[in-house]
Amino acid sequence: MLKVMLVDDEPFILQGLKILIDWEKEGYEIVAALSNGKEALDYLKENEVDLIISDIQMPVMTGLELLETIQKEGLSQARFAILTGFDDFSYAQRAIKNNSMDYILKPVQKKDILALLRNVSSLEKENKEKEGDRKKMEDAYLARNVIALIKGKYDESNIEYVKKHMQLSGKIRYVDIELVGELKESDEDDYDMRMLQHQLHNACRDVQKENLNHFIFDVSYDESSYDVGFIYCENMATRYDMTDDDYLEGLTKKIEGVLLKPVRMICGKKVNDVSQIAKSYSSCRMLNSIKGFHNEKRVYIYEDEVQIEQKSAYLCKKSLDECIAAIEKNEKNQIEKSVEKLYEEMYNVGENYNLVNLNINYLLFQLIHLASEQDDNVNQEEVIQYISENSFENSLSRGSREHMKNFALQYADYLMSLRKNVSRGILSSIEKDISEHYAENISLRNLGEKYYMNSSYLGQVFRKKYNVSFKDYLTNIRINEAAKMLLMSDKKINQIAEEVGYMDCDYFIRKFIEIKGCTPSKYRKNNNLN
Protein backbone atom coordinates (compact mmCIF):
# COMPACT_ATOMS: atom_id res chain seq x y z
CA MET A 1 0.00 0.00 0.00
CA LEU A 2 1.26 3.51 -0.82
CA LYS A 3 1.28 5.86 2.18
CA VAL A 4 -0.59 9.19 1.97
CA MET A 5 -0.35 12.28 4.17
CA LEU A 6 -3.26 14.77 4.11
CA VAL A 7 -2.55 18.34 5.29
CA ASP A 8 -5.38 20.92 5.68
CA ASP A 9 -6.38 23.28 8.46
CA GLU A 10 -10.10 22.66 7.86
CA PRO A 11 -11.21 19.43 9.65
CA PHE A 12 -14.24 18.92 7.42
CA ILE A 13 -11.96 19.01 4.34
CA LEU A 14 -9.75 16.31 5.86
CA GLN A 15 -12.79 14.22 6.74
CA GLY A 16 -14.28 14.75 3.29
CA LEU A 17 -11.07 13.58 1.59
CA LYS A 18 -11.02 10.44 3.74
CA ILE A 19 -14.52 9.36 2.67
CA LEU A 20 -14.49 10.76 -0.88
CA ILE A 21 -12.96 7.60 -2.35
CA ASP A 22 -12.07 4.03 -1.41
CA TRP A 23 -8.37 4.59 -0.71
CA GLU A 24 -7.61 0.93 0.01
CA LYS A 25 -9.18 -0.14 -3.27
CA GLU A 26 -6.83 2.26 -5.09
CA GLY A 27 -3.84 0.79 -3.21
CA TYR A 28 -3.35 3.63 -0.70
CA GLU A 29 -3.34 4.03 3.07
CA ILE A 30 -3.85 7.39 4.84
CA VAL A 31 -1.15 7.38 7.52
CA ALA A 32 -1.50 10.98 8.72
CA ALA A 33 -4.11 13.79 8.60
CA LEU A 34 -2.50 17.03 9.86
CA SER A 35 -3.59 20.66 10.17
CA ASN A 36 -0.52 22.65 9.02
CA GLY A 37 2.84 22.46 7.34
CA LYS A 38 4.83 22.47 10.60
CA GLU A 39 3.06 19.33 11.83
CA ALA A 40 3.72 17.74 8.45
CA LEU A 41 7.47 18.55 8.63
CA ASP A 42 7.72 17.07 12.14
CA TYR A 43 6.00 13.88 10.92
CA LEU A 44 8.31 13.56 7.91
CA LYS A 45 11.40 13.73 10.13
CA GLU A 46 10.40 10.39 11.68
CA ASN A 47 8.27 8.71 9.00
CA GLU A 48 8.20 8.02 5.27
CA VAL A 49 5.25 8.65 2.95
CA ASP A 50 4.72 8.25 -0.78
CA LEU A 51 2.24 11.08 -1.46
CA ILE A 52 1.48 14.41 0.25
CA ILE A 53 -1.80 16.17 -0.55
CA SER A 54 -1.72 19.62 1.05
CA ASP A 55 -3.79 22.80 1.17
CA ILE A 56 -1.97 26.03 0.27
CA GLN A 57 -3.36 28.50 2.80
CA MET A 58 -2.77 27.25 6.39
CA PRO A 59 -1.63 28.82 9.66
CA VAL A 60 1.92 28.38 11.04
CA MET A 61 3.25 27.09 7.70
CA THR A 62 1.52 27.15 4.31
CA GLY A 63 1.46 24.30 1.84
CA LEU A 64 3.88 26.08 -0.49
CA GLU A 65 6.30 26.74 2.39
CA LEU A 66 6.02 23.05 3.32
CA LEU A 67 6.83 22.01 -0.25
CA GLU A 68 9.77 24.44 -0.51
CA THR A 69 11.22 23.31 2.84
CA ILE A 70 10.96 19.64 1.87
CA GLN A 71 12.81 20.36 -1.38
CA LYS A 72 15.46 22.51 0.29
CA GLU A 73 16.20 20.11 3.16
CA GLY A 74 15.65 16.88 1.22
CA LEU A 75 13.30 15.56 3.90
CA SER A 76 11.22 13.30 1.69
CA GLN A 77 11.03 11.75 -1.77
CA ALA A 78 7.22 11.80 -1.60
CA ARG A 79 5.21 13.13 -4.51
CA PHE A 80 3.35 16.34 -3.75
CA ALA A 81 -0.02 17.74 -4.83
CA ILE A 82 -1.49 21.15 -3.92
CA LEU A 83 -5.16 21.83 -3.00
CA THR A 84 -6.45 25.39 -3.08
CA GLY A 85 -9.57 27.43 -3.45
CA PHE A 86 -7.63 30.25 -5.04
CA ASP A 87 -7.74 30.08 -8.82
CA ASP A 88 -4.52 32.03 -9.18
CA PHE A 89 -1.89 30.86 -11.66
CA SER A 90 0.92 32.32 -9.56
CA TYR A 91 0.26 29.63 -6.93
CA ALA A 92 0.42 26.97 -9.59
CA GLN A 93 3.66 28.42 -10.97
CA ARG A 94 5.29 28.41 -7.57
CA ALA A 95 4.08 24.89 -6.81
CA ILE A 96 5.24 23.51 -10.16
CA LYS A 97 8.61 25.23 -9.73
CA ASN A 98 9.07 23.18 -6.54
CA ASN A 99 8.12 19.92 -8.24
CA SER A 100 4.47 19.65 -7.25
CA MET A 101 3.04 17.05 -9.60
CA ASP A 102 -0.54 18.37 -9.52
CA TYR A 103 -2.60 21.46 -8.69
CA ILE A 104 -6.21 20.70 -7.72
CA LEU A 105 -8.86 23.36 -7.17
CA LYS A 106 -11.42 23.23 -4.36
CA PRO A 107 -14.08 22.02 -4.10
CA VAL A 108 -12.24 18.80 -4.76
CA GLN A 109 -13.82 16.48 -7.32
CA LYS A 110 -13.60 12.71 -6.92
CA LYS A 111 -12.40 12.28 -10.49
CA ASP A 112 -9.50 14.69 -9.90
CA ILE A 113 -8.28 12.79 -6.82
CA LEU A 114 -8.67 9.45 -8.60
CA ALA A 115 -6.69 10.77 -11.58
CA LEU A 116 -3.93 11.92 -9.20
CA LEU A 117 -3.79 8.60 -7.35
CA ARG A 118 -3.72 6.53 -10.51
CA ASN A 119 -1.01 8.73 -11.99
CA VAL A 120 1.09 8.32 -8.83
CA SER A 121 0.50 4.55 -8.84
CA SER A 122 1.60 4.34 -12.46
CA LEU A 123 4.75 6.37 -11.78
CA GLU A 124 5.57 4.29 -8.68
CA LYS A 125 5.15 1.07 -10.64
CA GLU A 126 7.40 2.40 -13.39
CA ASN A 127 10.01 3.49 -10.84
CA LYS A 128 9.96 0.10 -9.11
CA GLU A 129 10.43 -1.64 -12.44
CA LYS A 130 13.34 0.66 -13.28
CA GLU A 131 14.82 0.15 -9.82
CA GLY A 132 14.36 -3.61 -10.18
CA ASP A 133 16.06 -3.57 -13.59
CA ARG A 134 18.89 -1.43 -12.21
CA LYS A 135 19.36 -3.78 -9.26
CA LYS A 136 19.37 -6.81 -11.54
CA MET A 137 22.03 -5.19 -13.72
CA GLU A 138 24.14 -4.36 -10.66
CA ASP A 139 23.79 -7.92 -9.33
CA ALA A 140 24.65 -9.36 -12.75
CA TYR A 141 27.74 -7.15 -13.05
CA LEU A 142 28.88 -8.08 -9.54
CA ALA A 143 28.30 -11.77 -10.33
CA ARG A 144 30.37 -11.42 -13.50
CA ASN A 145 33.27 -10.00 -11.47
CA VAL A 146 32.93 -12.72 -8.82
CA ILE A 147 32.87 -15.46 -11.46
CA ALA A 148 36.03 -13.97 -12.99
CA LEU A 149 37.73 -14.41 -9.59
CA ILE A 150 36.28 -17.90 -9.13
CA LYS A 151 37.54 -19.02 -12.53
CA GLY A 152 40.96 -17.46 -11.88
CA LYS A 153 40.72 -15.09 -14.88
CA TYR A 154 40.71 -11.61 -13.34
CA ASP A 155 42.57 -8.36 -12.92
CA GLU A 156 42.76 -5.67 -10.23
CA SER A 157 39.53 -4.01 -11.40
CA ASN A 158 37.60 -7.24 -10.70
CA ILE A 159 39.06 -7.50 -7.20
CA GLU A 160 38.42 -3.82 -6.45
CA TYR A 161 34.77 -4.01 -7.60
CA VAL A 162 34.02 -7.16 -5.59
CA LYS A 163 35.62 -5.78 -2.42
CA LYS A 164 33.66 -2.55 -2.79
CA HIS A 165 30.27 -4.23 -3.26
CA MET A 166 30.52 -7.23 -0.92
CA GLN A 167 30.82 -7.34 2.86
CA LEU A 168 34.06 -9.30 3.10
CA SER A 169 35.58 -9.81 6.53
CA GLY A 170 37.85 -12.54 7.82
CA LYS A 171 38.78 -15.67 5.89
CA ILE A 172 36.65 -16.71 2.93
CA ARG A 173 35.46 -19.92 1.35
CA TYR A 174 33.48 -20.81 -1.77
CA VAL A 175 30.31 -22.81 -1.04
CA ASP A 176 28.27 -24.72 -3.60
CA ILE A 177 24.56 -24.99 -2.70
CA GLU A 178 22.56 -27.63 -4.53
CA LEU A 179 19.18 -29.33 -4.42
CA VAL A 180 19.27 -32.94 -3.28
CA GLY A 181 17.63 -35.66 -5.36
CA GLU A 182 16.14 -33.33 -7.97
CA LEU A 183 18.32 -34.10 -11.00
CA LYS A 184 16.43 -35.75 -13.87
CA GLU A 185 17.41 -37.26 -17.18
CA SER A 186 14.69 -36.01 -19.52
CA ASP A 187 15.48 -32.97 -21.64
CA GLU A 188 11.90 -31.78 -21.16
CA ASP A 189 12.67 -31.38 -17.44
CA ASP A 190 15.43 -28.84 -18.10
CA TYR A 191 13.00 -25.90 -17.90
CA ASP A 192 11.53 -27.17 -14.62
CA MET A 193 15.01 -27.66 -13.15
CA ARG A 194 15.93 -24.12 -14.19
CA MET A 195 12.87 -22.84 -12.34
CA LEU A 196 13.89 -24.83 -9.25
CA GLN A 197 17.35 -23.28 -9.50
CA HIS A 198 15.77 -19.80 -9.48
CA GLN A 199 13.68 -20.82 -6.46
CA LEU A 200 16.83 -22.01 -4.68
CA HIS A 201 18.59 -18.72 -5.47
CA ASN A 202 15.62 -16.68 -4.19
CA ALA A 203 15.35 -18.80 -1.02
CA CYS A 204 19.05 -18.23 -0.27
CA ARG A 205 18.63 -14.46 -0.66
CA ASP A 206 15.45 -14.46 1.44
CA VAL A 207 17.15 -15.99 4.48
CA GLN A 208 20.37 -13.97 4.15
CA LYS A 209 19.09 -10.50 3.25
CA GLU A 210 22.07 -8.67 4.77
CA ASN A 211 24.41 -10.55 2.39
CA LEU A 212 22.07 -11.41 -0.48
CA ASN A 213 24.58 -10.40 -3.18
CA HIS A 214 26.96 -13.11 -1.87
CA PHE A 215 24.77 -15.70 -3.66
CA ILE A 216 25.75 -16.12 -7.30
CA PHE A 217 23.42 -17.75 -9.81
CA ASP A 218 24.85 -20.22 -12.33
CA VAL A 219 28.53 -20.36 -11.38
CA SER A 220 29.01 -23.87 -12.76
CA TYR A 221 29.44 -24.43 -16.49
CA ASP A 222 28.28 -28.04 -16.10
CA GLU A 223 25.03 -28.42 -18.06
CA SER A 224 23.61 -30.89 -15.54
CA SER A 225 24.27 -28.59 -12.57
CA TYR A 226 21.49 -26.41 -11.17
CA ASP A 227 23.34 -24.99 -8.19
CA VAL A 228 23.97 -21.62 -6.53
CA GLY A 229 27.39 -20.31 -5.50
CA PHE A 230 27.88 -18.63 -2.12
CA ILE A 231 30.85 -16.48 -1.02
CA TYR A 232 31.06 -17.24 2.70
CA CYS A 233 33.05 -15.07 5.15
CA GLU A 234 33.93 -16.40 8.61
CA ASN A 235 32.69 -13.11 10.06
CA MET A 236 29.14 -14.28 9.25
CA ALA A 237 29.54 -16.95 11.94
CA THR A 238 31.86 -15.26 14.45
CA ARG A 239 29.57 -12.26 14.96
CA TYR A 240 27.01 -14.72 16.33
CA ASP A 241 29.73 -16.59 18.29
CA MET A 242 29.24 -19.67 16.06
CA THR A 243 31.55 -22.10 14.26
CA ASP A 244 31.51 -22.43 10.46
CA ASP A 245 29.83 -25.84 10.81
CA ASP A 246 27.03 -24.56 13.06
CA TYR A 247 26.40 -21.45 10.97
CA LEU A 248 26.28 -23.31 7.64
CA GLU A 249 24.09 -26.08 9.12
CA GLY A 250 21.70 -23.42 10.39
CA LEU A 251 21.70 -21.59 7.05
CA THR A 252 20.93 -24.85 5.24
CA LYS A 253 17.95 -25.51 7.51
CA LYS A 254 16.61 -21.99 6.92
CA ILE A 255 16.90 -22.39 3.13
CA GLU A 256 15.11 -25.75 3.34
CA GLY A 257 12.40 -24.12 5.45
CA VAL A 258 11.68 -21.59 2.70
CA LEU A 259 12.15 -23.96 -0.23
CA LEU A 260 10.49 -27.03 1.39
CA LYS A 261 13.10 -29.18 -0.36
CA PRO A 262 16.33 -30.81 0.89
CA VAL A 263 19.51 -28.84 0.22
CA ARG A 264 23.21 -29.73 0.41
CA MET A 265 26.26 -27.48 0.84
CA ILE A 266 29.75 -28.33 -0.44
CA CYS A 267 32.26 -25.97 1.21
CA GLY A 268 35.71 -25.37 -0.27
CA LYS A 269 38.74 -24.71 1.91
CA LYS A 270 39.26 -21.35 3.60
CA VAL A 271 41.47 -18.76 1.92
CA ASN A 272 42.76 -15.46 3.29
CA ASP A 273 41.36 -13.10 0.66
CA VAL A 274 38.71 -13.00 -2.07
CA SER A 275 41.50 -12.78 -4.66
CA GLN A 276 42.27 -16.43 -3.74
CA ILE A 277 38.68 -17.65 -4.09
CA ALA A 278 39.64 -19.71 -7.19
CA LYS A 279 41.61 -22.04 -4.87
CA SER A 280 38.58 -22.48 -2.64
CA TYR A 281 36.38 -23.10 -5.69
CA SER A 282 38.82 -25.73 -6.98
CA SER A 283 38.84 -27.51 -3.60
CA CYS A 284 35.03 -27.37 -3.57
CA ARG A 285 34.95 -29.14 -6.94
CA MET A 286 37.38 -31.71 -5.62
CA LEU A 287 35.27 -32.33 -2.52
CA ASN A 288 32.15 -32.57 -4.66
CA SER A 289 33.81 -35.27 -6.76
CA ILE A 290 34.70 -37.50 -3.79
CA LYS A 291 31.66 -36.97 -1.56
CA GLY A 292 30.07 -40.04 -3.16
CA PHE A 293 32.42 -42.18 -1.02
CA HIS A 294 31.61 -40.35 2.20
CA ASN A 295 28.58 -40.61 4.48
CA GLU A 296 25.71 -38.44 3.27
CA LYS A 297 25.49 -35.09 5.04
CA ARG A 298 23.67 -31.80 4.80
CA VAL A 299 26.97 -29.86 4.87
CA TYR A 300 30.39 -31.07 3.63
CA ILE A 301 33.38 -28.96 4.73
CA TYR A 302 36.69 -29.47 2.94
CA GLU A 303 38.90 -29.48 6.03
CA ASP A 304 36.67 -32.10 7.71
CA GLU A 305 36.46 -34.46 4.73
CA VAL A 306 39.84 -34.25 2.98
CA GLN A 307 42.66 -35.37 5.24
CA ILE A 308 45.40 -36.52 2.87
CA GLU A 309 48.05 -34.73 4.96
CA GLN A 310 47.18 -36.49 8.22
CA LYS A 311 50.53 -37.88 9.39
CA SER A 312 49.00 -39.78 12.27
CA ALA A 313 46.78 -41.88 10.01
CA TYR A 314 47.94 -45.06 8.26
CA LEU A 315 48.27 -45.00 4.45
CA CYS A 316 48.04 -48.47 2.81
CA LYS A 317 50.54 -47.41 0.15
CA LYS A 318 51.40 -50.80 -1.37
CA SER A 319 47.76 -51.90 -1.68
CA LEU A 320 46.79 -48.51 -3.09
CA ASP A 321 49.53 -48.64 -5.71
CA GLU A 322 48.47 -52.15 -6.76
CA CYS A 323 44.87 -50.98 -7.08
CA ILE A 324 45.85 -47.95 -9.18
CA ALA A 325 48.03 -50.13 -11.46
CA ALA A 326 45.17 -52.60 -12.02
CA ILE A 327 42.75 -49.77 -12.87
CA GLU A 328 45.28 -48.19 -15.24
CA LYS A 329 45.72 -51.50 -17.10
CA ASN A 330 41.96 -52.24 -17.02
CA GLU A 331 42.57 -55.75 -15.62
CA LYS A 332 39.10 -56.64 -14.34
CA ASN A 333 40.02 -59.59 -12.12
CA GLN A 334 43.04 -57.84 -10.66
CA ILE A 335 40.93 -54.72 -9.96
CA GLU A 336 38.51 -56.72 -7.80
CA LYS A 337 41.36 -58.52 -6.01
CA SER A 338 43.29 -55.31 -5.32
CA VAL A 339 40.18 -53.57 -3.93
CA GLU A 340 39.58 -56.59 -1.67
CA LYS A 341 43.21 -56.45 -0.51
CA LEU A 342 43.03 -52.71 0.17
CA TYR A 343 39.90 -53.03 2.32
CA GLU A 344 41.27 -56.06 4.18
CA GLU A 345 44.40 -54.10 5.08
CA MET A 346 42.40 -51.05 6.19
CA TYR A 347 40.18 -53.14 8.45
CA ASN A 348 43.13 -55.14 9.83
CA VAL A 349 44.73 -51.88 10.91
CA GLY A 350 41.46 -50.87 12.53
CA GLU A 351 38.04 -50.03 11.14
CA ASN A 352 38.42 -46.30 11.58
CA TYR A 353 36.36 -43.72 9.65
CA ASN A 354 39.28 -41.31 9.29
CA LEU A 355 41.66 -44.05 8.10
CA VAL A 356 39.18 -45.24 5.43
CA ASN A 357 38.61 -41.62 4.39
CA LEU A 358 42.33 -40.98 4.10
CA ASN A 359 42.98 -44.00 1.88
CA ILE A 360 39.94 -43.51 -0.36
CA ASN A 361 40.76 -39.81 -0.84
CA TYR A 362 44.35 -40.70 -1.73
CA LEU A 363 43.17 -43.26 -4.28
CA LEU A 364 40.69 -40.86 -5.90
CA PHE A 365 43.21 -38.02 -6.11
CA GLN A 366 45.74 -40.33 -7.77
CA LEU A 367 43.13 -41.47 -10.29
CA ILE A 368 42.28 -37.84 -11.12
CA HIS A 369 45.99 -37.21 -11.73
CA LEU A 370 46.21 -40.34 -13.90
CA ALA A 371 43.30 -39.20 -16.09
CA SER A 372 44.62 -35.63 -16.33
CA GLU A 373 47.82 -36.97 -17.87
CA GLN A 374 45.70 -38.47 -20.67
CA ASP A 375 43.57 -35.34 -21.30
CA ASP A 376 44.05 -32.22 -19.18
CA ASN A 377 41.15 -30.44 -20.93
CA VAL A 378 38.57 -32.64 -19.22
CA ASN A 379 36.99 -31.74 -15.88
CA GLN A 380 38.21 -34.86 -14.07
CA GLU A 381 36.50 -33.95 -10.79
CA GLU A 382 33.16 -33.96 -12.58
CA VAL A 383 33.91 -37.35 -14.13
CA ILE A 384 34.90 -38.84 -10.75
CA GLN A 385 31.68 -37.49 -9.22
CA TYR A 386 29.57 -38.91 -12.02
CA ILE A 387 31.17 -42.39 -11.92
CA SER A 388 31.11 -42.61 -8.11
CA GLU A 389 27.39 -41.74 -8.01
CA ASN A 390 26.62 -44.01 -10.97
CA SER A 391 28.42 -46.94 -9.34
CA PHE A 392 26.53 -46.55 -6.06
CA GLU A 393 23.55 -48.80 -5.37
CA ASN A 394 20.99 -48.38 -2.59
CA SER A 395 21.84 -51.81 -1.18
CA LEU A 396 25.46 -50.69 -0.58
CA SER A 397 27.09 -48.38 1.93
CA ARG A 398 28.88 -45.34 0.53
CA GLY A 399 32.61 -46.03 0.42
CA SER A 400 32.11 -49.77 0.95
CA ARG A 401 34.30 -52.29 -0.86
CA GLU A 402 31.47 -53.20 -3.27
CA HIS A 403 30.90 -49.53 -4.07
CA MET A 404 34.63 -49.15 -4.68
CA LYS A 405 34.75 -52.25 -6.89
CA ASN A 406 31.92 -50.92 -9.08
CA PHE A 407 33.60 -47.54 -9.27
CA ALA A 408 37.07 -48.92 -10.06
CA LEU A 409 35.75 -51.13 -12.89
CA GLN A 410 33.85 -48.21 -14.48
CA TYR A 411 36.77 -45.84 -14.02
CA ALA A 412 39.10 -48.32 -15.74
CA ASP A 413 36.76 -48.31 -18.76
CA TYR A 414 36.79 -44.52 -18.70
CA LEU A 415 40.61 -44.44 -18.76
CA MET A 416 40.58 -46.85 -21.68
CA SER A 417 38.29 -44.52 -23.65
CA LEU A 418 40.64 -41.63 -22.91
CA ARG A 419 43.62 -43.54 -24.30
CA LYS A 420 41.79 -44.38 -27.49
CA ASN A 421 40.99 -40.68 -27.91
CA VAL A 422 37.53 -41.82 -29.00
CA SER A 423 36.28 -38.30 -29.49
CA ARG A 424 37.78 -38.08 -32.98
CA GLY A 425 35.94 -40.94 -34.65
CA ILE A 426 32.87 -41.40 -32.48
CA LEU A 427 31.57 -37.82 -32.45
CA SER A 428 30.86 -37.97 -36.18
CA SER A 429 28.92 -41.19 -35.61
CA ILE A 430 27.04 -39.59 -32.73
CA GLU A 431 26.23 -36.56 -34.88
CA LYS A 432 24.74 -38.87 -37.51
CA ASP A 433 22.88 -40.78 -34.80
CA ILE A 434 21.32 -37.56 -33.46
CA SER A 435 20.27 -36.36 -36.94
CA GLU A 436 18.46 -39.67 -37.53
CA HIS A 437 16.95 -40.16 -34.06
CA TYR A 438 16.49 -36.61 -32.72
CA ALA A 439 12.76 -37.21 -32.11
CA GLU A 440 13.45 -40.12 -29.76
CA ASN A 441 14.25 -39.95 -26.04
CA ILE A 442 17.95 -39.50 -26.71
CA SER A 443 20.42 -38.52 -23.97
CA LEU A 444 24.13 -38.47 -23.18
CA ARG A 445 23.60 -41.44 -20.90
CA ASN A 446 22.18 -43.78 -23.58
CA LEU A 447 24.66 -42.50 -26.19
CA GLY A 448 27.48 -43.20 -23.73
CA GLU A 449 26.18 -46.72 -23.19
CA LYS A 450 25.83 -47.30 -26.93
CA TYR A 451 29.36 -46.14 -27.75
CA TYR A 452 30.98 -47.46 -24.55
CA MET A 453 31.93 -44.00 -23.30
CA ASN A 454 31.60 -42.32 -19.94
CA SER A 455 28.67 -39.95 -20.50
CA SER A 456 30.15 -37.13 -18.41
CA TYR A 457 33.36 -37.29 -20.47
CA LEU A 458 31.30 -37.50 -23.67
CA GLY A 459 29.41 -34.33 -22.65
CA GLN A 460 32.65 -32.42 -22.12
CA VAL A 461 34.19 -33.58 -25.40
CA PHE A 462 30.92 -32.73 -27.18
CA ARG A 463 30.93 -29.19 -25.79
CA LYS A 464 34.59 -28.75 -26.71
CA LYS A 465 34.01 -29.70 -30.35
CA TYR A 466 30.66 -28.00 -31.01
CA ASN A 467 30.96 -25.11 -28.53
CA VAL A 468 27.48 -25.88 -27.15
CA SER A 469 26.16 -28.39 -24.66
CA PHE A 470 24.65 -31.65 -25.88
CA LYS A 471 21.18 -30.48 -24.78
CA ASP A 472 21.48 -27.21 -26.70
CA TYR A 473 22.77 -29.05 -29.78
CA LEU A 474 19.81 -31.46 -29.69
CA THR A 475 17.33 -28.65 -29.02
CA ASN A 476 18.60 -26.64 -32.00
CA ILE A 477 18.17 -29.64 -34.31
CA ARG A 478 14.64 -30.30 -33.03
CA ILE A 479 13.54 -26.67 -33.30
CA ASN A 480 15.03 -26.25 -36.79
CA GLU A 481 13.23 -29.40 -37.96
CA ALA A 482 10.02 -28.06 -36.42
CA ALA A 483 10.51 -24.76 -38.28
CA LYS A 484 10.76 -26.66 -41.58
CA MET A 485 7.56 -28.57 -40.80
CA LEU A 486 5.72 -25.33 -39.97
CA LEU A 487 6.48 -23.94 -43.43
CA MET A 488 6.15 -27.15 -45.45
CA SER A 489 2.98 -28.59 -43.92
CA ASP A 490 -0.30 -27.59 -42.34
CA LYS A 491 0.17 -29.88 -39.33
CA LYS A 492 -1.00 -28.59 -35.95
CA ILE A 493 1.53 -27.22 -33.49
CA ASN A 494 1.09 -30.03 -30.95
CA GLN A 495 1.53 -32.65 -33.69
CA ILE A 496 4.78 -31.05 -34.87
CA ALA A 497 5.98 -30.86 -31.24
CA GLU A 498 5.48 -34.61 -30.83
CA GLU A 499 7.12 -35.42 -34.16
CA VAL A 500 10.33 -33.58 -33.20
CA GLY A 501 10.47 -35.18 -29.74
CA TYR A 502 8.47 -32.98 -27.34
CA MET A 503 5.54 -34.54 -25.50
CA ASP A 504 4.93 -31.26 -23.64
CA CYS A 505 3.66 -28.71 -26.17
CA ASP A 506 4.09 -25.77 -23.77
CA TYR A 507 7.75 -26.66 -23.27
CA PHE A 508 8.18 -26.95 -27.05
CA ILE A 509 6.71 -23.46 -27.54
CA ARG A 510 9.02 -22.00 -24.86
CA LYS A 511 12.09 -23.50 -26.54
CA PHE A 512 10.89 -22.37 -29.98
CA ILE A 513 10.49 -18.77 -28.76
CA GLU A 514 13.92 -18.96 -27.09
CA ILE A 515 15.62 -19.96 -30.36
CA LYS A 516 13.49 -18.34 -33.08
CA GLY A 517 12.31 -15.27 -31.20
CA CYS A 518 8.59 -15.83 -31.77
CA THR A 519 5.86 -18.43 -31.31
CA PRO A 520 5.51 -21.29 -33.82
CA SER A 521 2.21 -19.79 -35.06
CA LYS A 522 3.77 -16.39 -35.68
CA TYR A 523 6.80 -18.01 -37.34
CA ARG A 524 4.48 -19.89 -39.72
CA LYS A 525 2.46 -16.73 -40.45
CA ASN A 526 5.50 -14.47 -41.02
CA ASN A 527 7.47 -16.92 -43.19
CA ASN A 528 4.77 -18.70 -45.16
CA LEU A 529 5.29 -17.90 -48.84
CA ASN A 530 1.75 -18.78 -49.81
What topology does this entry show?
Blueprint: E1 2-7, H1 11-20, E2 28-34, H2 37-44, E3 51-55, H3 63-73, E4 79-84, H4 89-97, E5 102-105, H5 110-150, H6 156-165, E6 172-179, H7 190-207, E7 215-217, E8 228-233, H8 235-238, H9 244-259, E9 263-267, H10 277-290, E10 299-301, H11 302-305, H12 317-329, H13 332-349, H14 353-374, H15 380-390, H16 401-419, H17 423-437, H18 444-450, H19 455-466, H20 470-488, H21 493-499, H22 505-516, H23 520-527
Parallel strand pairs: 1-2, 1-3, 3-4, 4-5, 9-10
Antiparallel strand pairs: 6-8, 6-9, 7-8
Helix pairs in contact: 2-3, 5-6, 7-9, 10-15, 12-13, 12-14, 12-16, 13-16, 15-16, 18-19
Explain what the structure shows:
The chain is α/β, with parallel strands linked by helices and 530 residues long. The protein folds into four domains: 2-108, Rossmann fold (3-Layer(aba) Sandwich), CATH 3.40.50.2300; 161-305, Alpha-Beta Plaits, CATH 3.30.70; 317-419; 425-527, Arc Repressor Mutant, subunit A (Orthogonal Bundle), CATH 1.10.10. 58% of the residues lie in helices and 10% in strands. The protein contains 23 helices and ten strands. The strands form two sheets. Strands 2-1-3-4-5 form a five-stranded parallel sheet, with helices on both faces. Strands 7-8-6-9-10 form a five-stranded mixed sheet, sandwiched between helices. α7 packs across α9, α12 runs antiparallel to α13 (332-349) and α15 crosses α16. The longest helix is centred in the N-terminal third of the chain and has 41 residues, at 110-150. The radius of gyration is 32 Å and the shape is elongated. The two termini are 53 Å apart.
